[in-house]
Amino acid sequence: MSYKGKYYPSYPQKYKGDPTNIIYRSLWERKFMVYCDRNERILEWGSEEIALPYRSPVDNKVHRYFPDFYIKVQENTGRIKKYLIEVKPLKQTVKPKKPKRQTKTYIREVYEYAKNQAKWKAADEFCKDRLWEVKVMTEKELGIK
């Protein structure tokens, strides 16, 4: 089940973008927004504020990918680091297992997995140029069962 809504930050000055128009597309994204907003080590953050071109392996056309989050963090060492964060179910981060019978669900999962891989490759290239890092966060990292 997907939950959508608007998030209103407690600390709008930390948000890079329009703090009156922050949209979450899942409760996992909302949970991460609360974390970014309230964590003092997160110096700034944004949600879907960066557009990256990528070539989809599904139709071989160039599309735009908006990573879920950008964060600027002061790490325990005192060093400042920037990240692009994608929030995804663990199931969408691993290659689907081929069933005995090829189903529409399996084909859809293969397409989604291939698209995600292309998006994350584009994000990785973007980050390498800037000395940033890409992280895909699943229910495991978010502490959701």
Question: What tags apply to this protein structure?
Answer:
four-stranded mixed β-sheet; alpha+beta; two-stranded antiparallel sheet; 8 strands; Trna Endonuclease, Chain: A, domain 1; globular; 3 helices; 27% strand; 145 residues
Which helices and strands appear, and what pairs or packs with what?
Elements: E1 5-7, E2 22-24, H1 27-38, E3 42-47, E4 52-55, E5 62-65, E6 69-74, E7 80-87, H2 104-130, E8 133-137, H3 139-142
Parallel strand pairs: 7-8
Antiparallel strand pairs: 1-2, 3-6, 4-5, 6-7
Give structural notes.
The protein has one domain: Trna Endonuclease, Chain: A, domain 1 (3-Layer(aba) Sandwich), CATH 3.40.1350. It is globular and about 50 Å long. The longest helix is centred in the last third of the chain and has 27 residues, at 104-130. The chain is an alpha+beta fold and 145 residues long. The model has no long low-confidence stretch (mean pLDDT 94). The chain has three helices and eight strands, in the order E-E-H-E-E-E-E-E-H-E-H. The strands form three sheets. A four-stranded mixed beta sheet has the order 3-6-7-8. The chain has helices at residues 27-38, 104-130, 139-142; strands at residues 5-7, 22-24, 42-47, 52-55, 62-65, 69-74, 80-87, 133-137.
